[in-house]
Amino acid sequence: MTTEPTPQEQPEKLEAAEQNAAEKKARKTLKISVIVNIVLVVIIAIAGVSGVLLHQSDTNPNFCATCHIMQPNVTSYLTSNNLDHIHMEAGVQCKECHSDYDVVAEITSGFKFITGNYEVDATGNLTQRKFSDTVCTQCHISLDHVAEKTADLTRNPHDSHLGDLPCNTCHVAHGEQIDYCAQCHDNGGQTMFGADEPAE
After folding, report:
1. Is 56 inside a domain boundary?
2. Torsion angle in degrees (nearest 10) through CA of 3, 5, 8, 12
3. By the 8 A CB rule, do 194 and 81 touch?
4. Is 193 part of a structural domain of the chain?
5. 27-74 per-position pLDDT tens digit
6. Are 197 and 99 in contact (CB under 8 A)?
């Protein structure tokens, strides 16, 4: 048999039930608050690390060299007689030419770095990327402008009788330049950037 609470016990039981419900609600609120704060801290940490990595990839060529397969290109950019080093001395950052290298491409490269899944040529070096002249003319204005700047040369390589040749016919970013005109012509002793002696 159950006994009915006396009128004096009823408010006490009601108060105890309310207090119990309030404690449960407070514990639930605390749990949710802790979980939300942990998630926020993780998101802020990921955003901070991502920001640092993006800044490094934009401004520090040695960051790219952490991927061992990039080391030859970075060394060339920092120390060679090649076109990339001339651009480095002029203050041109890697991503000013590699502007199509967006966040998605960086993440993809990160996975390739982790897995070692690179596209390489027969010698084990990265395959050379193909660029259009628009990569060059984003700074060098136009092919006509470049031809005007070199008009005083004995043979103007940028005003060819063969018409407009793509920039990469002669200019190689991370390698020796190709003196295309000298394959047929005596070029009057002119040298290309990075060449020690004029082409014969």
Report:
1. no
2. 140
3. yes
4. yes
5. 999 999 999 999 999 999 999 998 888 888 888 888 888 877 888 899
6. no
**Nearest-angstrom CA–CA distance, 76 and 178:** 16
- Single-letter residue type at 143: L
- CA dist., res. 131 & res. 166, Å (int): 10
Q: Which domain holds residue 188?
A: 130-200
Question: Is residue 80 included in any domain, yes or no?
Answer: no
Confirm whether 138 is domain-assigned: yes
Supply the CATH number for residue 181's domain.
1.10.1130.10
One-letter amino acid identity for 116? G
String of b and e for 35-51 (b: at least 16 CB within 10 Å)?
A: eeeeeeeeeeeeeeeee
Encode pLDDT of 160-176 as tens digits. Answer: 888 889 999 999 888 88
